[in-house]
Amino acid sequence: MASKGPRSKLDHETRARRQKALEAPREPRRPKTHWDHVLEEMVWLSKDFESERKWKLAQAKKVALKASKGMVDQASRGEKKLKEEEQRLRKVALNISKDVKKFWIKIEKLVLYKHQMELDEIKKKALDKQLEFLLGQTER
Fold first, then answer.
1. CA Rg, the chain, in Å?
2. Per-residue pLDDT tens over the stretch 76-134
3. Residues of 104-114 as b/e, b for ≥16 C-beta within 10 angstroms?
4. In this structure, are residues 20 and 26 in contact, taking their beta carbons and an 8 Å threshold?
5. How far apart are CA 79 and CA 66, in angstroms?
6. Which of 74, 73, 96, 76 is nearest to 84 (CA)?
7. Residue 24: phi, psi to the nearest 5?
8. Cα–Cα distances in Å, from 36 out to 11, 25, 30, 32, 93?
9. What is the DSSP letter of 27?
10. Rama region for 31: left / alpha / beta (φ>0; ψ in -120 to 50; rest)
11. Using CA atoms in the order 20, 25, 28, 31, what is the torsion angle rounded to 10 degrees?
12. 100 conformational bin, left if phi > 0, alpha if psi -120 to 50, beta if neither
C-alpha cells in the first residue's frame, strides 16, 4: 500500500508521463479527402442497413403474431358460433317442451272434466231413478 504524501503524488505524475510517452504520437489533422467521405458513407450505410434489417424483422414478427392471432380468433369464432347455435336450439327446445307440457295439462284437465261429467250424469240418473221410485210409492 502506498503511503499518502508527496512521494505518492510524484509516483502518479511519473506514471502519467511514462504512459504518455508510450502512446503513439497523433497525426496532425489533415483535410478530408474523397476517400474519407466514401468511408464515412460506407459506415453510415452499414448502420442504416443494420437498422433497416432490425426494423423489418420486428415488422415481420408483428405481422406473424397478428396473423396467428387472427387464425386463433377465426377458430374461436367458429367454436363460439357453434355454442351460440347450440344455446339457441336449447332455448327453442325448452319453449317447445313447455308448450307440449301445457297442452297435456289442458288435455288432462279436459279428461278430468269429462270424467266428472260422466260421474255427475250417473249420479243424476241414480237420483232421478230414486226420485221416480219415491214418487211412484207416494202416488200409490
1. 55
2. 888 899 999 999 999 999 999 999 999 999 999 999 999 999 999 999 999 999 999 88
3. eeeeeeeeeee
4. no
5. 20
6. 76
7. -70, 140
8. 42, 21, 11, 6, 85
9. P
10. beta
11. -120
12. alpha
Q: Are 36 and 45 in contact (CB under 8 A)?
A: no
CA distances from 44 to 48, 55, 73 (A): 6, 16, 43
User: Residue 61: left if φ>0, alpha if ψ -120 to 50, beta else—which one?
Assistant: alpha
Rounded-to-integer distance, Cα 20 and Cα 13, Å? 11
Q: How many Å apart are CA 97 and CA 115, to the nearest integer?
A: 27
CB 27 within 8 A of CB 33: no
What one-character DSSP code corresponds to residue 79? Answer: H
Could you give the CA distance from residue 66 to residue 59 in angstroms, rounded to a whole number?
11
Q: How many CA atoms lie within 13 A of 2 on its CB side?
A: 9
- Report how far apart the first and last C-alpha atoms of the chain are (Å, whole number): 157
Model confidence at 10: pLDDT above 70: no
Residue 27: all three cell numbers together: 497525426
Half-sphere exposure of 111 (CA within 13 A, CB side): 6
